[in-house]
Write a structure and sequence with these properties.
By secondary structure, the chain is an alpha/beta fold. The chain has 9 helices and 11 strands.
Length: 267
């Protein structure tokens, strides 16, 4: 079950400006992610219009929209890597970017980042130990096998192909414990077999109770998602059940007026 900002069951809806302004946490299940009045500007450019959002434990959210819609901006703020111009974000009750929030959030960036002089196995050990992952050696071996990297643990990821770097980045995201997984275009660069593996990993994470947010252009993600959120020019234009048409960029016709509307100032 997914909830809107009023704690009500989502039925699939185009988001009006009035609806975006309201936000009350669910009394039944504490949200893992809670954003209120979130806004990000770059000089005169509004990268993300005022946004209220909450994500509950076990939700697997497909975050969709064209390039430049605001997806990466939103995910970077959730991960604590970018300060909002206005508004607040909390992860399990702690401000995004705080040590407490970072301890609960695993982030897979759209461009994999590695240390130049560490092997893949050393990366996994470093991240696992940093976050106190139990039995990390066994988990590292499982991840390498799942992702077809079992022969590459002693190699430098900086020398990997694009697809192998992406799989290594995914392994780093899953080696540590988390309450919230934020994955920015994780399917990019993966072959069909590896995409299937990632689908099962995401499904397993949400089934275990973690909140999962995945930005993607791949329509098949609708089959495993519990909720879909669409951004357009920095505005939230859809929040409801997963929909292949929405993921493909075909927003409901009734969204046209909203897409042309000016941004409402927070207040």
């Amino acid at each position: 079950m997914a909830w809107d900002a009023d704690g009500e069951a989502l039925t699939g809806q185009v988001m009006t400006k009035a609806k975006r302004k309201r936000s009350k946490p669910s009394s039944a299940t504490p949200a893992v992610l809670m954003a209120r009045g979130l806004r990000r500007e770059y000089d005169d450019l509004i990268a993300l219009a005022p946004l209220d959002l909450q994500v509950a434990p076990g939700e697997l959210v497909a975050l969709v929209g064209a390039n430049g819609a605001g997806k990466t901006t939103l995910m970077a703020m959730v991960a604590g890597l970018l300060e909002p111009s206005q508004g607040t974000i909390q992860i399990c009750g702690a401000p995004a970017g705080s040590l407490a929030a970072r301890a609960r959030t695993s982030y897979i960036p759209d461009t994999p980042i590695f240390y130049q002089d560490l092997s893949l196995g050393e990366h996994l050990e470093y991240v696992a130990r940093l976050h106190g992952a139990p039995d990390w050696q066994r988990r590292a071996s499982e991840l390498l096998e799942q992702l077809g990297l079992e022969q590459w643990g002693d190699k430098l990821p900086t020398q990997f192909s694009r697809g192998m770097r992406q799989k290594a980045s995914i392994a780093l995201g899953f080696i540590r414990p988390f309450s919230l997984l934020v994955a920015d275009e994780p399917f990019d660069g993966l072959d069909p077999s590896s995409r299937g593996v990632l689908v099962e990993m995401l499904r397993s994470a949400s089934a275990s109770g973690a909140a999962v947010i995945v930005s993607t252009h791949r329509t098949e993600v609708a089959d495993i998602s519990s909720r879909c959120i669409a951004l357009h020019d920095g505005q939230l234009v859809y929040d409801g059940p997963p929909d292949r048409a929405v993921i493909a960029g075909h927003l409901p016709p009734s969204a046209d007026a909203l897409l042309a509307a000016e941004v409402t100032e927070p207040g």
